[in-house]
Specification:
Layout lengths: L10 H13 L3 H8 L7 H17 L3 H18 L4 H16 L3 H14 L4 H13 L4 H14 L4 H13 L3 H14 L3 H13 L3 H14 L4 H10 L1 E2 L4 E2 L1
Antiparallel strand pairs: 1-2
């Protein structure tokens, strides 16, 4: 029997309906379903924007998501410049700025988040990691990441960022210990990729290959893993440097 989808008037059900259409390959219909979400109150408007931005982001339409969110950030900045929603939107917009290669804009937005929410570990982490990954202002990146660790001591992804800045600073043994601990807490492909590069740089190539193979089992298409292997000229199938 044919599956019949019926839209609901409840906003949460309407979003679920839209996302179901998206999963069925009917992205445009899904976006259209969101246009009728209510906007009578600021909360309803924000809910609608969040739903639309999330759909666009999930569909890899980062530029469109950035434009839509940025437009609404500008609006909210003039009406309620101190709202927590604005700080959350600044964070989301920063992540989309990174996806669309606006790295200066990403940094500016994350500093706004930190100013508005000084206990937001994820904002310190995102800014610190972004600097570390590009090899910029590493001492500042480490300060930001130590603050993130202080705020969220049990977050393995923040520990991964700290391990990565230690690696970039040349503190290989410290980086290895932090990343091993992070990977044990959360077997994640990106953490494993970083750990593998530290081991490889230390000359522990067999161990590095083993860790990268574990990363590939977790997520064979992880972009950081693929970029790292290509940059270092490593083939996991041959298990040797090519």
């Amino acid at each position: 029997s044919k599956l019949v989808l019926t839209p609901s008037s409840k906003p949460e059900m309407r979003v679920l309906y839209a996302r179901t259409l998206q999963m069925m390959g009917r992205f445009d219909d899904g976006m259209k379903a969101l246009t009728v979400l209510p906007e009578a109150t600021p909360e309803q408007s924000q809910y609608k924007v969040n739903a639309q931005v999330q759909m666009l982001r999930d569909n890899q339409q980062f530029q469109a998501a950035y434009d839509l969110l940025n437009q609404n950030v500008q609006k909210l900045s003039t009406t309620d410049a101190k709202s927590i929603v604005l700080a959350d939107w600044h964070y989301d917009l920063a992540m989309l700025a990174e996806k669309t290669n606006r790295l200066g804009e990403m940094e500016r937005l994350l500093r706004l988040v930190i100013a508005a929410k000084p206990d937001d570990a994820q904002a310190y982490n995102a800014l610190g990691y972004s600097l570390a990954d590009r090899g910029l202002r590493l001492a500042e990146a480490k300060v930001l990441l130590l603050k993130a660790v202080q705020l969220a001591p049990n977050d393995p992804f923040i520990a991964d960022s700290l391990g990565w800045v230690e690696f970039k600073l040349g503190n290989l043994e410290q980086a290895k210990l932090i990343l091993i601990s992070a990977f044990e807490a959360k077997p994640d492909a990106e953490i494993a990729t970083h750990l593998g590069e530290v081991l490889w740089t230390q000359g522990l190539k067999t161990e590095a290959i083993t860790v990268w193979q574990a990363a590939r089992m977790i997520n064979p298409n992880h972009p950081t893993l693929l970029e790292t292997l290509k940059r270092l000229g490593v083939s996991l199938d041959a298990s040797t440097k090519v």
